[in-house]
Specification:
Helix content: under 10%
Radius of gyration: 33 Å
CATH class of the domain at 1-27 and 667-742: Mainly Beta
CATH architecture of the domain at 1-27 and 667-742: Sandwich
CATH topology of the domain at 1-27 and 667-742: Immunoglobulin-like
Number of helices: 1
Largest sheet: 4 strands, antiparallel
Strand content: 35-45%
Distance between the termini: 35 Å
Oligomer: single chain
């Protein structure tokens, strides 16, 4: 889940005068990897896998109709509403097959044998509407097949055995439309499968014996589909009519387009091997999503053809699943209610991050190839990857080629590439665990460089950098100092005795910046050989951390340093530092690599995912595996901005790449709801709008949820108790808060 910082005015929520909760949650909606599908089942608290319907209310809760009652989902837990024979206002029957959230935000629940229920939000119980043989104004049948709201707000109920029913909101009665064998203008069958409305406000009804239209002006029904080009089966299970009046229906045998004026039905052939057993038709953008016994199919209404519903090209999404109903949120989440497999949550918007893992898995010691320690772009646009095994050529798409010969690979030889830098002749220097190497051209063999002044070969070179004057800056593991070496003259300069240097960064002014682990940052001017040390312990407390992991010079010439506590911004014109803290739970954390994209945004690889920072506003968002990353953990200084604008970060698990312009953030703050209240361990149900605590209470516990479902575990909160504890708590993913006696 992507988060936004710093805090924004207006992002605090106050519940009465009791508690305020500040939410840090937005989503990024995860186009490259495999389509993400999550399942909600017994492990998540869904005790029965038979789910028949799904709906979302105005507050943001997701409701599921199941064989075990109604379930309300808040992203963390299910709240169950079931029949209780000792509670008259409980759900009338646990078998729930149809639901509707109407334009008044009322939840209607159709049961199979218990009639119709209307959820009472204030008391969190139900009002029942049942068939009464003695009352012709009661519901016509207790088995509810369909619930529909017309544009005028009328509620229509389709039953199995009681025909079509129109609810009267004024006196809570029903007008029944049932089959009368002596009246040809009556409804043709008392089992109603589906209900729809056309642009002229006529009501269309699909029954077990035909398709019928009821004019808005009469109580009579007109039968359709009996012509030679009519329906292929009289049972009409689903109807959809768009704003233009175009009609699609599903019979027991097929799916197709129906033309009322000519009374003609044109079945549409399903993809090969599919069974056209459609239970529901749901509009989505320019398509219709068909819920079937064998998954979800996608029909493009504009092109009049089926399209693959799954990102991998499969015709069906969640194939081999008996899908009864789907619902698509505006954020791009699809919820599928399945008959035997619980709930499927499908991320329709594919991830923008591409991952390459298990690199060269056919080679021995293949795991070392997935350790991407360093990177450099080749002149032809491809990449050199420095791995834990050897230098590897990557074509930017899918092909990885080790530079090491197959003979050496089979002999289990390894050469860890810790760093790389180009010289002025486009030759590539490599700092490795077996010394310094040079690659004159992409097709050349590696040449080992003997550093006579350092004792010859096999000196581990942890870092190599090339400056504007042609000198190399080297960090050798054997010595606790930084070396500046001229390859042409063999002249050597030594700096920083007894310092644990991690890397050396050369800025645009040819100054060398040496990052250390524990001793801060050193600036070296090679023209004067002057050295300045900046650290967290100096008189000015210049830095927030003495652990420096990476450096980068931005478009505006400022230099950014990645530290174990966030970022340090250095402005050369004023020679001043500014600390940019990336805090979660009140604690800053390590930035390991950083890159600036062409729009000026900073991208930070951390041990907790990837961050995008606006350097002007200092607002940042972050992305995790829930947004499509293959890993949340990255390596220091393993980063590259490619010539095509792509950004790459390396980790011990492979390579991550993305187009920064394609990574969009969802800035909408989701609704926040209090979902539970406990006093001394006893639940207060229903959740009150205000609360009076007894004098002898010991602990008050409040549970809440941000009703965003992309990655609830990534949602972040701050809390405070207004007029008691007014200081905001640390940012946390915990969605409960407790207060002892106040």
């Amino acid at each position: 889940m992507m988060r936004h910082f710093p805090y924004r005015a207006g992002s605090a929520y106050i519940v009465r005068a009791m508690i305020a909760i500040l939410l840090f949650c937005c989503a990024l909606l995860p186009v490259y990897g495999q389509q993400k599908i999550e399942s909600l089942s017994l492990h998540d608290g869904l005790l029965n896998p038979q789910v028949y319907d799904v709906a979302k209310d105005e507050q943001g809760f997701i409701w599921f109709g199941t064989a075990d009652g109604v379930k309300r989902y808040d992203g963390y837990t299910f709240t169950s509403f079931r029949h209780d024979k000792n509670t008259p206002s409980s759900l009338s029957n646990n078998s729930v097959g149809a639901m509707l959230i109407d334009s008044k935000n009322r939840l209607w629940i159709g049961t199979w044998g218990g009639g119709l229920n209307l959820y009472q939000r204030k008391t969190q119980n139900f009002k029942h509407f049942l068939q009464d043989e003695e009352n012709p104004s009661s519901l016509g049948g207790n088995k509810i097949q369909a619930i529909f709201e017309s544009r005028s707000g009328q509620i229509w109920i389709g039953t199995n055995g009681g025909g079509l029913n129109l609810f009267n909101d004024v006196d809570n009665t029903f007008v029944r439309f049932e089959h009368n064998p002596n009246d040809k203008t009556s409804l043709g069958h008392n089992r109603v499968w589906s209900i729809a409305e056309d642009p002229s406000n006529n009501i269309w009804v699909g029954t077990s014996d035909g398709l019928y239209r009821k004019s808005r002006y009469t109580t009579q029904f007109e039968r359709f589909g009996d012509t030679p080009n009519g329906l292929d089966h009289p049972e009409v299970r689903a109807i959809y009519i768009n704003k233009k009046g175009y009609m699609w229906i599903a019979t027991r045998n097929s799916f197709g387009r129906f033309y009322p004026k000519s009374n003609r039905y044109a079945p549409i052939e399903f993809p090969a091997g599919a069974i056209p057993s459609v239970t529901k038709i749901t509009p989505y953008e320019d398509a219709l999503l068909l819920s079937t016994f064998t998954g979800i199919f996608k029909f493009n209404t504009r092109k009049a053809t089926f399209e693959p519903a799954a990102e991998n090209g499969d015709w069906a999404l969640s194939d081999n699943r008996d899908v009864r109903q789907v619902m698509v949120e505006s954020s791009g989440l699809l919820w599928a209610a399945t008959r035997y497999s619980g709930i499927k949550k499908v991320f329709l918007n594919p991830p923008r991050f591409q991952g390459w893992t298990n690199i060269l898995s056919n080679q021995m010691l293949s795991g070392l190839f997935s350790q991407i320690i360093s990177m450099a772009q080749k002149p032809n646009g491809e990449m050199w990857l420095g791995t834990g095994r050897s230098l590897v050529n990557f074509d930017g798409i899918s092909k990885f080629t080790p530079q090491m010969s197959q003979e050496n690979l089979d002999s289990l030889n390894r050469l860890r590439i810790d760093s790389m830098t180009y010289d002025n002749n486009e030759g590539l220097y490599l700092g490795t665990d077996f010394g310094l190497y040079y690659l004159a051209t992409s097709s050349s063999d590696l040449e080992e460089i003997a550093l006579d002044w350092a004792g010859g070969l096999n000196n581990t070179v942890e870092w190599v950098a090339h400056d504007a004057e042609g000198w190399l800056w080297l960090n050798l593991a054997k010595y606790r100092h930084v070396v500046r070496w001229n390859p042409k003259t063999n002249e050597v300069q030594r700096y920083l005795d007894e310092v644990d240097a991690e890397f050396t960064f050369i800025d645009n002014q040819n100054n060398a910046w040496v990052g250390t682990q524990g001793e801060g940052l050193f600036q070296i001017d090679p023209s004067t050989q002057g050295v300045i040390n900046y650290n967290a312990n100096d008189d000015a407390n210049t830095l927030s951390s003495n652990h420096i992991n990476a450096a980068m010079q931005a478009i505006d010439d400022t230099i950014w340093f990645a530290t174990n506590r966030g970022l340090e911004k250095y402005t050369p014109s004023t020679k001043s530092f500014e600390t940019i803290s990336l805090d979660i739970d009140g604690v800053g954390f390590a930035v390991l690599s950083l890159v600036q994209d062409r729009q000026g945004m900073l991208w930070l690889a951390t041990s907790k995912g990837i961050y995008r920072l606006n350097p002007n506003t200092q607002e940042f968002q972050y992305f995790t595996t829930n947004d499509g990353l293959h890993s949340n953990t990255f390596l220091p200084r393993s980063a590259l901005l490619a010539s095509d604008g792509f950004i790459y970060f390396g980790s011990i698990d492979g390579l991550t790449g993305f187009n920064p312009n394609a990574v969009s953030a969802n800035d909408a703050i989701p609704p926040l709801a209090i979902t539970g209240v406990e006093i001394d361990g006893e639940e207060v149900f229903p959740v009150p709008t205000s609360l009076v605590l007894p004098n002898d209470y010991k602990q008050l516990t409040i549970t809440f949820a941000a009703l965003d479902y992309h990655a609830s575990e990534d949602n972040q909160y701050r809390t405070r108790l207004v007029n008691y504890y007014d200081t905001w708590s640390d940012i946390t993913d915990r969605y409960t808060v407790s207060y002892a006696r106040m």
